[in-house]
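Ticket reopened. Same input as before:
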Amino acid sequence: MIDISAALKHRVTFIAGNRKNAGKTTFLNCVLGPLRAKDPVAYLTVGIDGEKQDLVSGQVKPQVMARPGDTLLTAQAALARTDGLYEIRQVFPYRTVLGRLVLAVMRRDGFVELVGPETNRQVTTVLQYIQKQEGIHTILIDGAVNRLTQIATIPNAGYVYVVRAGRRNLEQTISEMKRLFALDALLQREGPCPENCFQVHGALTERKLRDLPETCDEILVQDFTKVFLSHRQIAHLQERCRLFFRDRLPLRFFVVNLFDLDRETVLDQIKDKQLRERIVFNPYEN
Amino acid sequence: MRTERLFEFAEIDGFLQRYEPLTPYGRHRKQHLALSASREELEQDYKRVDLAIRFIERHPEAADRVAYHLGRLPLLDCLDQLEWDGPEAFLIKRFLVNYQAIRAVLSDDLRQEMGFRFSSSALLDLLNAGNQDGESFFLSDAYADGLKQVRERIRALETQVDDARRGRLDEIRACCGLDFQHQDFALIPNLEAESVDRHLVFLETYDACRLMAKPVFPGSYLDLIQEKASLIAAEKTLERDVLRNISREIVREQDALAGYIQAATRLDDYMARARLSLAFEMTRPHLQDWGAPITVQDGRFIPQVEQCRALDLPYTPVDACFDRRITVIHGANMGGKTVLLKSLAFFQALAQMGFFVPCRAFHTVVFEGIHCLGSTTPEPVGGLSSFGLEIYAFSQAQQDRNLLYLIDEFARTTNSREAQALISAVLHHLDGRDDRYALLATHYTALPTLPHVATMRMKGLDEEKYKAYHASHEELDISERIKLISQFMAYSVEEDPNQTTTYDALKIAAILGLDKGIIESALESLGEVNGE
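Engineering reply: fixed in the latest deploy. New output:
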């Protein structure tokens, strides 16, 4: 069984999801409680999340219940609306539609709407600031659904993948989990590309596979977000040659929010024991 | 003054990447670097760089602290606004804290020269109200008694709310086994609904298998929450009043703040120039009256120095005295004529941007324009050939005064007879204008002797040494031969009043393997006796 707090402590973790309303913010709120009890914690989001409601909790979102001592990043206007009390630690020169991005430490409880940086470079700068200047190493990033690729910019970061699994999308969801799990098993290659290595610029797609040189026995891709192949295609490819990443982004675990399903139905379709062990079902269940 | 072609020819942009201001203001200023034609301004620049260098050398620790605090100065890009919110007040405070820290460690002369005044203690005290930590900002209770009172009531209420919440959650845990300590809701199987006390826990359908459970709090708890919400609304009003008061103080200090920004920009700029000067052992240029000779001692054209280093080749520093306004430079192909022009362009551009120069000494004059013509001209554009562009660029500047021309192989793309005639005519023209300096690199000899025109030559290939070496290394391939030419080429420049004929091009052609018969034939056609 996964110890969620231990898996996230002293790490930078993106909370990514398979769709809108997968339950990313709810998961963030859920893990903040036990995490902040152990260590100072910082959190932010990437961009502005347009989702109005979280379908797991049914509550208006994306608002986070910030507690005293929490360090968070949001925009000027969002901070002005909080009912909490906060100390401003840094104002970044990045503007959003809701004003500049502000790093604040909470002094009193309050709900906060998170607004975050838009570009990879901004995300990196903010994270480095939190780590180096504020000395906080447990950092959570509530990632919008299409922002998984931003993980690639952060050294030593990893991600949690939150899915909402229902009857209608079960097959697709499990297929995506198998795909990400397969990609997570691949290794990183540093240094120059060997002679028989095919370096993929941009995305590795089915079409690019057709253009692979006959002599190629290794493929080098920037990171897993650039692989646009199904888990079956990945397995088939690995029979022919080895796949490496320039940047490796570890998958910490899956969070599976079940809807109209029980966990046995999901597990029945996942034979791989190691993958099963990387799943946290409905963390909000008592 | 247009500088694009000069900057490109002198390879300035690459070098200036090492000029690194630390503040957003300094970085902005760097983007707008321009040549100055004011000797007074430039002398002031040099004086300030000099002061900054002395400060860094005499007080290295203080200089490090200055660099640290400069790096923390935030961009205040909205000084003219009337209303300031918390994050904006934070920026002002952060600026003032770091500005003060810089001011405290600056030497007296540097402080005075950069205009580092401070008269905003009252504003800084206001932004520090409540003994706030360092650079952070917080609307503390100390700003207003009303704020303090309302927050005390909120704190007291929070204790009651927490106690009430904890009590209810303990009751739920004991009664139903549900733990809401870290979450506002829980999902439970439908089957467990029976075991839940509906007075304590609210249940609603989540999906076909589960219910969503949320704690039910007593009316007294909700009253406390309601009261807290009212107090928070009152707190917000009081906070707005505090911010209005802070805004008024900031507006009052706007002129002073603008002055601090100017001083910080200045200091950042000159400290960055000083660091660059120290890194490349640069010295203060000597600006002279118009008409004085340009001299370079031990000048290092840094882009070339680095290129030589990368190729493991020796670099020959520039030592030259151009004692007439116009100088014609002869020399072999690969002999360094273009690099000499580029070096001079590099030193002159740096000097006229207020930088020190990488020379033991550089004496020059201030030009109102610097024009690079000839092989420096970019590829044909807009229907004009490179020849057309050269002529156009030369003609364009005719109305301007006090110019420096750096002309590399002028008219090289036209036929040699006309080109030679054209260069001769250009020399006559320049000779007659007191407001022109020029360095003209050319292959053509037999150019007119004129009062203000000197002739110099690149020393070129040391043929004897090369031959001695080559005799024992005949197996060298073409790339090794080219490298050898560089090794045996003397890149220094010397006076050549008689316009000596050396035929270095033929020597190099021979080194590179051109048929001996062709070389001899060429020498014959030049009327030379073939000694080899």
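The mean pLDDT of chain B is 88. The longest strand of chain B covers residues 453-461. Please confirm and we'll close it.
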